[in-house]
Amino acid sequence: MRLLVCGGAGFIGSTFARQRVHEHDDEVTVLDKLTYAGREENLHDLVDDARFRFIRGAIEDREAVAAAIEAGAPEAIVNFAAETHVDRSIAEPDAFVSTHALGTYVLLEAAREHQLRYLQVSTDEVYGSIAEGTFTEESPLAPSSPYSATKAGADLLVQSYFHTYGLSALICRGSNNYGPYQYPEKLIPLMILNALHGDSLPVYGDGMQVRNWIHASDFAAAIGHVLEQGNAGELYNAGGPDEEANLTVVRRIVALTGASESQIEHVTDRPGHDRRYSLSSQKLRALGWSPRVRFEEGLERTVAWYRENSWWWEPIRSGEYRAYYERQYGRSLS
Ligand code: NAD
Ligand code: DAU
Description:
Elements: E1 2-6, H1 11-24, E2 27-32, E3 52-56, H2 62-72, E4 76-79, H3 86-91, H4 94-114, E5 117-123, H5 146-165, E6 169-174, E7 176-178, H6 187-197, E8 201-204, E9 210-215, H7 216-229, E10 235-238, E11 242-245, H8 246-257, E12 264-267, H9 282-286, H10 295-308, H11 310-317, H12 320-329
Parallel strand pairs: 1-2, 1-4, 2-3, 4-5, 5-6, 6-10, 7-9, 8-12
Antiparallel strand pairs: 9-11
Bound molecules: nicotinamide-adenine-dinucleotide and 2'deoxy-thymidine-5'-diphospho-alpha-D-glucose (DAU).
The site of 2'deoxy-thymidine-5'-diphospho-alpha-D-glucose has 19 residues, from helix 6 and strand 8.
């Protein structure tokens, strides 16, 4: 296939681009604005590949989108481009509204004009929190944060393009991803790097919030599977095989890094914090996808990757991230 991968310089988008080129021999054009979270380094092993092309641009910029379509002549658009950190959406929601609402709209219009298949990458957070049981594709939308509310709005717009214009549009909603190349604002890489540096490990509230962890390679494969096998107009959940409380995850990271449990510090809880996410992937499993990486093994591999790839995170830890960390946590990194 020839694909336009928007947001392909981010954590999951770059995992997907790598998988499609290396394992499926696809031709991939990445369109990415390169926000603080988007990094060309994430695509370092693709830049010299003839099947790969990188274009810097925003999805809400019609001209940039048109240029990317002209350059890559894609058969499908896969949209990962998003602002993705819940805490930043609470502090500064502006970019979440423009990228998720306007950006998705511009891409949908381009897909309609060129009659392309369109896949929107979405999140289990659109369903809100669930005390018991699991969310299915039929569960109502009940987002809690500006992040999840704007992602839910984008999903509704995507569905409207199927119903109104017959666009071949699909949605794939994932649970919490982890793995290599994840920006360290997110729980797992933040805790790994703080543990390795002897910094404190800031657990929000009691740390008993539960997340349904999926390795990014499994979520990327799920998206590829939906793109190839999914029915137009439908949405598919892709949840990980394991659920864990945050405090359990942090304690495992402490053990894997040889840090000390005394580094764990309970800090003020996130406003509107969802207590538990849990996603049923029965529908996508029936299409032949299933996650391969169990959390225990994936976490061990992820810790090893961060240990071995300081070239990747050192520039981040000494750049914008330091200032963000001070604003968010009221203290400095070592
Ligand atoms: P990320 O923050 O690592 O990457 C986002 C990418 O989008 C970056 O490369 C950034 O530069 C780019 N981007 C942002 N705004 C843009 C714009 N206006 N135009 C073009 N590019 C723009 O995020 P991620 O964790 O890889 O998430 C990718 C997608 O997967 C998002 O849509 C997110 O909602 C979804 N998702 C993430 C998770 C998770 O746990 N990380 C789980 C489920 C779904
Ligand atoms: O569920 C899918 C979603 O997972 C994605 O859509 C989002 O893009 C992604 O950021 C992620 O959202 P979360 O809010 O669940 O991830 P985060 O890594 O920010 O936090 C995971 C849990 O850990 C959450 O309960 C908050 C908690 N936490 C997080 C940080 C950064 C802490 O206790 N301390 C922290 O410092």
